[in-house]
TrEMBL record:
Residues 151-216 form the HTH luxR-type domain. Keywords: DNA-binding, Phosphoprotein, Transcription, Transcription regulation. Pfam families: GerE (PF00196), Response_reg (PF00072). It comes from Flavobacterium psychrotolerans. This is DNA-binding response regulator.
Length: 229
């Protein structure tokens, strides 16, 4: 049997801690190895616990989650961080991902999403709860509903995220820039790009851009560069 993934929890509400512990305990692949109710104890205890993943609230007494992330970034701590927050603010998501967080959960989604988040982050992927995932994508596609329902798109079975990445590739944004705007790593962007190449049946990003032009997708990109820059 493989070793369980060690999870450390940090939140200033004991009830929420107990709730998360109960959910995580229900999955045999993970175990909770400790918890903290404030940022000071968190910085001291999580390293000792030898945790693989830290699930951390942003608003904590003494030292908040942003400062904790800055400290971990400075010290290059090996564990992965999933941020837990009451806020669904994209600016906050951008800030914590730049500081090294690997996932983002709103507190209202934690019960239903925490195991899925742990699984994805363990695999090396970024994870956003459904609320944030939709909000991130909607920030790009809210003015392009006609395009997202295009028959061409339906025929090749693109996901909503692939739609957005295809748009940005067609606009000649780099993988790094796309990652920054969608709060995902350049490696994840590259994975999506490779999937797009297979689905669209072309050999390069130039081929993807030509595909977008050939199928009249570019006309629906008006204003997209203004959103991204």
């Amino acid at each position: 049997m493989e070793d369980k993934i060690k999870v450390y929890l940090a939140d200033d509400h004991q009830m929420l801690i107990e709730g998360m512990k109960a959910v995580i305990k229900s999955n045999e692949n993970f175990e909770v190895v400790g918890y903290s109710l404030n940022g000071v104890n968190l910085i001291e205890d999580v390293t000792i616990s030898d945790a693989d993943i830290l699930i951390m609230d942003i608003n904590m007494p003494k030292i908040d989650g942003i400062e904790v992330l800055k400290e971990y970034s400075r010290l290059k701590r090996p564990f992965k961080v999933i941020v837990l927050s009451s806020y669904d603010d994209l600016k906050l998501v951008r800030e914590v991902m730049k500081l090294g967080a690997r996932g983002y959960l709103t507190k209202q989604s934690a019960a239903e999403s925490i195991i899925e988040a742990l699984v994805e982050v363990t695999k090396g992927e970024e994870y956003f709860c459904k609320i944030m995932h939709e909000k991130i994508l909607n920030s790009f596609v809210q003015n392009n509903q006609e395009w997202s329902q295009n028959k061409i798109v339906a025929d090749i079975n693109l996901t909503q995220r692939e739609l957005v990445i295809l748009k940005l590739i067609a606009l000649e944004f780099s993988g790094k820039k796309i990652g920054e705007k969608l709060f995902i790593s350049a490696n994840t962007v590259e994975t999506h790009r490779k999937n797009l190449l297979k689905k669209v049946n072309v050999k390069s990003s130039i081929g993807l851009a030509k595909y977008a032009i050939r199928n009249n997708l570019i006309d629906n990109l008006k204003g997209e560069s203004d959103v991204i820059d």
